Amino acid sequence: MSDLAERIRAVVGEDPNIGEIRMFGGICFTLNGNMMVGTMKDGTLLARVGEEQEAEALSKPGATRMNFTGREMKGFIIVAADALGDDALKRWIAMASRFVGAMPAKKPGAKKKK
Fold first, then answer.
1. What pTM value is reported for the model?
2. pLDDT for 41
3. Of 74, 67, 34, which Cα lies nearest the Cα of 50?
4. N or C: which end of the chain has fewer CB within 10 A?
5. CA atoms of 113 and 95, how far apart (whole Å)
6. Cα-atom radius of gyration of the chain, to the nearest Å?
């Protein structure tokens, strides 16, 4: 897991809009406060690509739709660890960045009103 996180850090560099939080037993990388990619316990990558890019994403080696507690999550893709060569990882991060980068930024510390 930490190896994949280090590889992701190497790709995203020092971008001030990228953050990290613990999620799903791994590390989630955010763009402007929105979940972009993450590491899973088993060394797989979670990529948030959105529904419009999902068909393209699912056609790539090692890609499946995220199934969390028996429920498939549209627009979220799990990529097998053995399909994450350096070039492939860069492409997954770029695809997730295209989708998440178009989303409005989340305000830090914003709380829902009751």
1. 0.88
2. 85
3. 74
4. C
5. 33
6. 14
